[in-house]
Design brief:
About 35% of the residues lie in helices and about 15% in strands. Helix 2 packs across helix 7, helix 9 runs parallel beside helix 13 and helix 10 packs across helix 11. It has three domains: about 190 residues, Rossmann fold (3-Layer(aba) Sandwich), CATH 3.40.50; about 140 residues, Rossmann fold; about 130 residues, Rossmann fold, CATH 3.40.50. It has 18 helices and 18 strands. The protein is globular and about 80 Å long.
Length: about 475
């Protein structure tokens, strides 16, 4: 069952504040030949996150791009959005930081010409630097080093903790400063409109993961929290003993509307006194919860590629089979965690079909199916509803009533006859069809291809990122046609 601490935290006000951490990538490098020691920034982030949570500010979000941005996403756009929405900026000042143009740019964008926002900067000093940007001058900052009488610099953290007492004293002061700024200072009109509103009784059980999937858990938890959902168990942690862990899981599942389970290569630890891992325990109890409630869906995330390239490509259904036969109400999701986040939020909050573009990505032959799957993954966003990729000969998908359906076909190796057969298949449901003519295949057949009502768009490659995919849709006026803005 939930502890008194969990209950107290649930009653606290939602501060809705985001702290954007600006840092140089070089300052988070792990030492060579030392896999056990975390990078400076990662260690700092984890310790500060714990300190804020322990103080009851679990809703004060620390924005760190390692957890917030997937490699497939548009990096620059998401960074800029996060800076605009941040209540506080926490730059980690170092020799590396002042040499990185993107770090200086983050500082300037946060202030955006309003020098009063300097009060919202919590300056962390990893190293002493003589060349400091004008916006940071005269800010005291919090030092993670000290000068010895001999003149030697003593780092609190260098290849691990060197001065534990000094490090955590400084960290505590930073946590207090963040709390003071998030709780006491009135919000600006902009901050108020951007505040995350918690949804009453919208609880998601995000199963505590094994260590190899903890970063993915954190990224998904951040997205769901930002969308206003309550994620349990808090911080993805469970008690050490099997009895307490089971009680905590049952209580959380009883309040949740759906559960998500992380199936990596490692099942992780086993609680003390238990006979099964946390991963198996949570899935078993979720299945029991579903049987008792008659309707309780479980999402089994078994990605084909594990984050960080930890293993070769996997067969998701073989992974799921390790946990027994697939049960009613269980859905296997095999794409990366950013896709899972988008899909899950769409499932929990189905968008208004009149305001969202419905896209169907199709392939004429098996050789082009990889193109269709990749394109569908990169097209997902809050403005688009992606149907499962369609392959020639499959049953036609069910479509939302009253929506405009745009079909995108990446044309790689298919022949002209195979493409025409696909177009005939989809003619009954397509409001608009766009052929993306890629290099390869029979170029002499592709070049003169023409069909009434079908748009041809020559492209040299598939959009490499989500941002590029969005730009492609904008260029094709796909988004505008679906929202009624196209002439």
């Amino acid at each position: 069952m939930l502890t008194s601490t969990d209950t107290d935290n649930a009653r606290r006000p939602n501060f809705g504040g985001t702290v954007f951490i600006s840092y140089a990538r070089a300052d988070d490098e792990k030492p060579p030949f030392d896999d056990a020691t975390e990078g400076w920034v990662t260690f700092f982030w984890r310790q500060l996150r714990w300190k804020l949570t322990n103080a009851g500010l679990h809703e004060a979000k620390l924005w760190l791009d390692r957890y917030e941005i997937d490699p497939a996403e548009d990096f620059t756009t998401k960074i800029e959005m996060a800076i605009r929405e941040a209540r506080l900026l926490l730059p980690i000042l170092s020799l590396n930081w002042i040499q990185r143009a993107y770090c200086i740019n983050e500082l300037e964008r946060f202030v955006a010409g309003d020098t009063s926002r300097r009060e919202d900067i919590v300056l962390v000093k990893k190293q002493e630097t003589s060349d400091v940007p004008e916006l940071l001058k005269n800010l005291e900052g919090y030092r993670f080093f000290a000068s010895e009488p001999s003149g030697k610099i003593r780092d609190f953290y260098w290849r691990g903790l060197k001065d534990q007492a000094a490090y955590f004293d400084t960290l505590k002061s930073i946590a207090h400063r963040i709390a003071d700024r998030l709780i006491d200072r009135p919000r600006s009109a902009l901050a108020t409109t951007q505040q995350t509103v918690k949804r009453n009784n919208r609880v998601i059980f995000l199963a505590a993961p094994s260590d190899d999937l903890r970063d993915a858990w954190q990224r998904l938890a951040n997205d769901l929290d930002g969308a206003g959902f309550t994620v349990l168990p808090v911080d993805g942690r469970l008690p050490d003993t099997a009895t307490n862990a089971e009680a905590r899981i049952r209580t959380a599942l009883g309040t949740a509307e759906i559960s998500v389970h992380f199936l990596g290569e490692s099942e992780g630890a086993t609680p003390n006194g238990g006979g099964e891992t946390y991963t198996r325990l949570q899935l078993r109890l979720a299945r029991e919860n579903a049987a008792a409630r008659l309707c309780f869906d479980r999402i089994l995330w078994a990605p084909k590629w594990l984050p960080g390239g930890q293993a070769d490509k996997r067969d998701p259904f073989e992974v799921v089979d390790r946990f027994g036969p697939l049960c009613d109400g269980e859905h296997v999701f095999a794409e990366e965690v950013t896709n899972l986040s988008q899909w899950l939020r769409g499932r929990l909050d189905p968008p208004d079909p009149q305001s969202v573009t419905q896209l169907l990505v199709a392939a004429a032959i098996d050789a082009d199916s990889g193109l269709a799957t990749t394109l569908a993954s990169r097209l997902q966003s809050d403005q688009t509803s992606i149907l499962s990729p369609y392959f020639c000969g499959d049953p036609l998908p069910g479509l939302a009533e009253g929506t405009t359906t745009v079909v995108l076909i990446p044309w790689g190796d298919a022949t002209r006859n195979e493409v025409e057969a696909l177009l005939a298949d989809l003619s009954a449901i397509a409001s608009r069809t766009v052929l993306l003519r890629l290099p390869g295949g029979d170029t002499t057949a592709k070049a003169p291809f023409f069909k009434t009502g079908v748009d041809i768009e020559p492209v040299t490659e598939l959009p490499p990122t989500r941002g590029a995919a969005h730009d492609l849709l904008t260029r094709l006026e796909v988004l505008k046609s679906a929202t009624g803005q196209r002439a």
